[in-house]
TrEMBL record:
Name this protein carries in UniProt: Aminoglycoside phosphotransferase
Superkingdom classification of source: Bacteria
Lipoprotein among keywords: no
Keywords per UniProt: Transferase
Amino acid sequence: MEEVQVVVAHHECATLRVGDVFLKIDSDQARTDVEVEAMAMAPVPTPEILWRKPPVLALAAVRGQALGHLGEPSTAPSAAWAAAGAAVRMLHDAPLPPRPGRSRDDFASELDSECEWLLTNAVLPADVVTYNRRLAETALRSWTPVFTHGDLQVSHVFVDGDEITGVIDWTEAAQGDALFDLAILTLGHEEHLDDVVAGYGTDVDLDVIRAWWSLRGLLGVRWLIEHGFDPSAPGCEVDVLMRAAGDHGRESPHGLRTR
């Protein structure tokens, strides 16, 4: 009898693995609609949809292993990171999905509220928040929308050697900034940024990518803490923010789990 593995679970959704089948359970079927439509449109490998019976979406496991994990060194070769960059470029060159995604004003408003929360609750030193907020604002410029994955964490890209075998978790797919995807893919893995950019095959503004690292970190800390994850684990969001500000002295909150 196959063992049931809880991959991730919180009050919004859960993902279970049973053998080679992933069961995604989501209370918001609009997110699942986005995922199914995006996978059908994406010009890169995606999981096979086995069946859908709301609130459950059954997906086949993809071959290979994750390109890496946030907070851990990646064992994937440089060629795999370059292949990931090439796959992202294919996605960005594809026709736009219907979902508009967050605007520059949306990000700016969210940045205001999250920085206020971080300071009010003394989650991060004020100088770290101030420095990263100033850096983050560089990302809030006009951009030409492309087909973005929207949550292209390194653990969402699967490889076999230097071959991309699948990109998973498309619930945030939308029209957006190309550099946002590149930033999320390389968050906490700055040493592979050159490989990804080389595979992407066109000049990109590295300062904007670094700005998205700061913005993503500032926006993500509260959600992670409230859902029981540890954003302060080595290599994760708080560590990225601290290193950007030149400060390594933050201890991790207690009672939180890594990803």
